[in-house]
Amino acid sequence: MNFEQARFNMVEQQIRPWDVLDFDVLDALAEIPREYFVTESQLAYAYSDKTLPLPNGGSMLEPKIVARLVQGLALKPGDKVLEIGTGSGYATALLYKLSGNVTTVDIDSAQQQRAKEALDKIGLNNINYQIGDGIADEGDGNLFDAIYVGGSVPEAPDTLKNRLKEGGRMVVVVGGAPVQRALLITREGGSYIEKVLFDTLIPSLAVPEKSLAAKFNF
Which segments cross the bilayer (predicted)? Predict the structure, then answer.
């Protein structure tokens, strides 16, 4: 399979038509070999416009969703980025290409190791990996310029809002079927400004059930 051509087609036929027009994002997508982040049985679908299953039962979001969310963060070199849910590592690669400073957290050490191996293969070996519940954990007190949440949650977690610097941005998909909303949340003067980026429907973030029960009101 000609992966280089498939990558070009993905950018031109899937990403651009979905209002992803940021040149830095498009350039990064054109460089990242997505075939490294899928299982061998999924190689034919590496650049398809679909959600792919991960070995641990999680999901690899379709490329246009990842691209549109990351575009919303308006990353620049040096931005300190927190990713909740390493997953396949593909979004991690995009975040790192744009910022050069990523901490990624996942509850599944085996899946995160698979992602790390793929990221190491393409030379992205200066990423900070953490194992834990990124939703419930308050972290070590570090604040971030940007936070990317790699799966849907019932509502935007206060624990993550509190980890944003002044002027910091978070993208997160909230709600449930049949329609969820992708939000851009910006911390401004102690307040949090929400903007709806688009409507979608994606798999939920993998977190312990007790975490959801403790952090969200149903």
Answer: none
